[in-house]
Amino acid sequence: MSNPDETENNLKILRQSYLEGLPDEIKTAEQLWEKLRARSEDRESLDTFYGLIHRLNGSGTTFGFPRISKIASSLEAVLRNIVDGHAPLMSTQVRQIADELQTMKKHLAEMLEREARLASPTMGIVPEQEEEATEIFLLEHAPEETADLRQQLRYFGYAVRSSMRIEDIRQGKKPEVLIVDLDSFIDVPMAYEALMIFPRSGDTPIPMITLSSYGDMNSRLQAVRAGSKAFFLKPVEAPQVVDTLDRLSHKRPSEPYRILIIDADERLANYYASALRQASMLTRILQNPLEVLTAIDDFRPDLVILDLYMPKCGGLELAAVIRQQRAYVSIPLVFLSTEANLNHHLDALQVSGDDFLTKPIATQQLVASLTARVQRARVLRSFMVRDSLTGLLNHTTTMEQLYREHAVAVRQKAPLAFVMTDIDRFKSVNDTYGHPTGDRVLKNLARLIQQRLRQTDIVGRYGGEEFAIILVGADAANAVRLMDEIRERFGQLRQQSDDTEFYVTLSCGIACI
Known about the structure:
There is one protein chain. By secondary structure, the protein is of the alpha/beta class. It has helices spanning 4-38, 43-59, 66-85, 91-117, 143-155, 188-195, 217-225, 238-249, 266-278, 292-299, 315-324, 342-350, 363-385, 395-412, 426-433, 435-452, 476-492, and strands spanning 134-139, 158-163, 177-181, 200-201, 204-205, 208-212, 228-233, 258-262, 282-286, 303-306, 333-337, 355-358, 416-423, 458-463, 466-472, 495-497, 500-502, 506-512. It folds into 4 domains: 4-124, HPT domain (Four Helix Bundle (Hemerythrin (Met), subunit A), Up-down Bundle); 133-249, 3-Layer(aba) Sandwich (Rossmann fold); 258-382, 3-Layer(aba) Sandwich (Rossmann fold); 395-512, 2-Layer Sandwich (Alpha-Beta Plaits). The strands form 5 sheets. Strands 2-1-3-6-7 form a 5-stranded parallel sheet, with helices on both faces. A 5-stranded parallel sheet has the order 9-8-10-11-12, sandwiched between helices. Helix 11 (315-324) links the parallel strand 10 and strand 11.
């Protein structure tokens, strides 16, 4: 059985192997694209090109390169229309594909350069998602009214390009999200009608957010019919808009789902594991059910798949043992067996199983079923381990993570930084502006920290206005540089309370090993 150190080392090896193979993958993609530009009817090259881009879309985030997945996802959306419709390449599609391939190639070069710089174990705190600001297009007729919003969004890592003309959406780089200020249009229905035609590039819709001074049913219904994903009443608060922008632009990609497969049939288990990995999930196979507690503790799965019939320990018995552990109560248990007797299915569910799937099962059905289960489980688990106000880890969970990361760092002789932050004179904020405003200040800081950290870093609300941050693999110099940047950005962030604006500062303390 692998221990936590071995698991992490294996993931690092896989990640490095993936990164080393990316130059050849992108070179192959460029060669296929050149063939298609010369002979657009070359169906074989098109299918091969589409398959390669599809793989990059599914694997990038899994191995820690979310921007590779984001670029590949945009390419795949364009190619899917061509593959499914057997349609010739349009000039706009040719331009977008060429631009996206160049962006991917440039990003790869930057990643390789960064990896070379970070070869030292004391480096590596600059998160990939902070390399390039996410571009937003703001459609407006009164730029002076949104100047403050643009400035606030910049502090959260967004670059805003604005114009008064709908046609300008297509000019320059394709934006990740479109924000429309409806108050700028005299004829709102006509504006919506135009927006339904223009904010598209390569037949891929651009997610839209609308701002308006009117929140009546008709205004909201018009926004929905035009394809708007969110509707904000003026005056808008930047953190609320950022919440939606993060979601629509996938600025903070979620961690891959972790699935533990317990099955005595190694070949079948490998088959299902392969299908789940194709869906960007992380898997581990366990053939000896008696090792389940160690496996769960090491792998920390989001969901466990188990067979009903296994040597040494049956599936029902195994589920009962798992449910005896309080720490594992929230982990979904899904039975996957050839058993067709419905009474046995009910027995499995009564013993705290969450679902019963029958072999053989189509991989699409398996992936869909597990995805739905894990999504709900993560939401429910977040209520138990996360602070309800900020969405960060709560005090208990943060300290558990610190003990674990400290033990790993000591064993691996790797650096680790622990940061405590405190909002200066926070009591006076509550006394002056009220607790609801104080809560917004806390949420603003939580979001700013989350956006600046890597996925491997850990942040939690320690208590009150104190936050705890665990920087994995960071030495003192890097930790100080990062926290200074966060401190300066937070000090520049304009806070609001009704019609009053104010600023708040932050202090940090750092301990390193």
